[in-house]
Amino acid sequence: MANPEKHTCNWCGRVLVGKELAFLLKIEMMADPSPPEITKEDLKKSWVDEIEALAKAMEGMDPREAEDEVYESYSFWLCGACRIRLHKRLKYPFFSAD
Ligand SMILES: [Zn+2]
């Protein structure tokens, strides 16, 4: 199925022509998935107080923002030139790519 977004580079905005190859960039960002370490001090804490503190901290939080903090993903289409620019920045982050 044809994807209309695939015909425009999401980075430079250039419209891809003919059979020009598009590159899909996927980004995932998530909170540390490893379980938190439980200490003896943690076991002494009151769980009711802990849950109340957590609920209070989340009170003013936008539910979507709270969800994004746990996991978010994005997809972008890039043209060949932008793919090379990004490739150099990721592969050689200490050198200027341009
Ligand atoms: Zn581009």
Q: Mind sketching the topology for me?
A:
Elements: E1 23-30, H1 40-44, H2 47-58, H3 63-70, E2 71-78, H4 80-91
Antiparallel strand pairs: 1-2
The protein binds zinc ion.
Zinc ion (ZN) is lined by residues 9, 11-12, 14, 78-79, 81-82.
Radius of gyration: 22 Å
Ligands bound here? zinc ion
Beta-strand portion reads 15-25%
Biggest β-sheet, characterized?
2 strands, antiparallel
Spans with pLDDT under 50 lasting ≥5 residues? none
The count of strands amounts to 2
Task: List descriptors.
98 residues; 4 helices; alpha+beta; two-stranded antiparallel sheet; binds zinc ion; 2 strands
Structure notes:
The chain is α+β, with helices and mostly antiparallel strands. It has a domain at 1-30 and 68-98. The protein is built from 4 helices and 2 strands. It has helices at 40-44, 47-58, 63-70, 80-91; strands spanning 23-30, 71-78. The protein has a two-stranded antiparallel ribbon with strand order 1-2. The longest helix has 12 residues, at 47-58. The two termini are 35 Å apart. The chain binds zinc ion. The site of zinc ion (ZN) has 8 residues, from helix 4.
Summarize this structure briefly.
With 98 residues, the protein is α+β, with helices and mostly antiparallel strands. The chain has helices at 40-44, 47-58, 63-70, 80-91; strands spanning 23-30, 71-78.
